[in-house]
Amino acid sequence: MAGNLKQALEKKLSEKEKAVFVKSFDSLGNIAVIEIPKELKKKEQLIGNTLLELNKNFKTVCKIAGPHKGKYRLQPLKIIAGEKNFIAEYKESGCRFVFDVRKTFFSPRLSNERLRISKLIKKNEIIGCFFAGVSPFPVVFSKNSEMKKAFAVELNPEAVKMMKKNVLINKCAEKITVIQGDVNKIARTKLKNSCDRIVMPMPHGGENFLKETLKALKKNGVIHFYQVLEKETAFEEAIARAKKECIKQKRKFVLLDKKIVRPFSATKVQVVIDFKAG
Ligand SMILES: C[S@@+](CC[C@H](N)C(=O)[O-])C[C@H]1O[C@@H](n2cnc3c(N)ncnc32)[C@H](O)[C@@H]1O
Questions:
Q1: Residue whose CA is closest, atom 13 of ligand 1?
Q2: Is the pLDDT of residue 183 over 70?
Q3: According to the model, what pLDDT value does residue 97 have?
Q4: Which residues does 101 contact at the CB level (< 8 Å), separation at least 6?
Q5: Which of 49, 116, 198, 270 has the most beta carbons within 10 angstroms of its beta carbon?
Q6: What are the pLDDT digits (tens) for 238-266?
């Protein structure tokens, strides 16, 4: 699809413009999100309309207007073509999600991770879905694993509103408890020593939540810990952070797996480490 877009623009862009064009984009069902380099600003409408013509599922094309920011990790977006609508209707792994792309974080790029972890979840496990956003992790787990229950913790009230809606749409209210609040507080209070497995998809700053997250994890429970770090030392650094916190709490650190999730920038990657804390 990204190749098709490049092909469709072949005759509409100059050689100079083609050289800076970023052909990849995120598909959020009816909304496409694309990066437009500043050199192509005058062509953004043309690019947006070409994308709408190529993929009839897209009704709106947004351009990225800045990096994710703030504690809710929101991405500034601007509509460049199609309907004036920011509500995405997106499908993944047999689940449906509705959310406002301006007011909540969502990344389709973690869909493989959600399925990978679904396959690791054992029957009757209690899962902590921390930094749950609009619910992609807990809902995909609910549909694709034999978990007993998930506690979905999220701070952003808008995301929590969408999460509650998505839990209902996907008929998993019996298995998912939505908790609005700060992971650091919820983990050491309501969820103390209650989870067999905890997912921490907070790659920027997730290390500041390890201490309390460990308190919510049962003995020999598993944590999936995401980080964005310098390529060369990413695994080393992520492992060192997790191990240090386990040692502080006199828990045995056992590395189960490590993976590159996706490239992040020229020098950084997003990684995940799976570890057991004894
Ligand atoms: C990188 S996003 C991940 C969202 C979701 N898991 C996904 O993959 O689409 C991180 C999420 O953590 C939430 N968040 C930030 N600080 C938090 C905190 N202290 N406690 C709970 N959630 C928090 C943000 O609002 C955001 O929705």
A1: 131
A2: yes
A3: 98
A4: 28, 31, 33, 62, 75, 77, 86, 87, 88
A5: 198
A6: 999 999 999 999 999 999 999 999 999 89
Of all residues in the chain, what percent carry a pLDDT higher than 90?
88
- Work out the angle between the directed axes of helices 136-144 and 111-120 (0-180°, nearest 10): 40
Separation of CA 256 and ligand 1 centre (Å): 24
Ligand 1 neighbours (beta carbon < 6 A): 71-73, 105-107, 110, 131-133, 136-137, 153-156, 159, 182-183, 201-202
110-277: CATH superfamily = Vaccinia Virus protein VP39 (3.40.50.150)
Q: Which residue has the tokens 């013509």?
A: 53
Nearest CA to ligand 1 atom 9: 106
Question: What is the spatial distance between Cα 182 and Cα 134, in angstroms, rounded to a whole number?
Answer: 15
CA 199 to ligand 1: nearest atom? 6
Domain locations in the chain as residue ranges: 2-85, 110-277
- CATH architecture assignment, domain 2-85: 2-Layer Sandwich (3.30)
Q: Give the distance (Å) from ligand 1 centre to CA of residue 186.
A: 14
Q: Residue 195: name the closest of 242, 135, 225, 151 by CA.
A: 151
Tell me how far CA of residue 20 lies from CA of 14, 37, 142, in angstroms: 10, 7, 41
Q: How close is the Cα of 156 to the center of ligand 1, in Å?
A: 7
Nearest CA to ligand 1 atom 4: 133
In this structure, the dihedral spanned by the alpha carbons of residues 92, 93, 94 and 100, taken in order and rounded to 10 degrees, is -20
Q: Which ligand 1 atom sits nearest the alpha carbon of residue 183?
A: 20
Measure Cα distances from 134 to 67, 130, 140, 172, 222 in Å. 19, 11, 12, 14, 23
On whether the CB atoms of residues 104 and 74 are closer than 8 A, the answer is: yes
11: DSSP letter: T
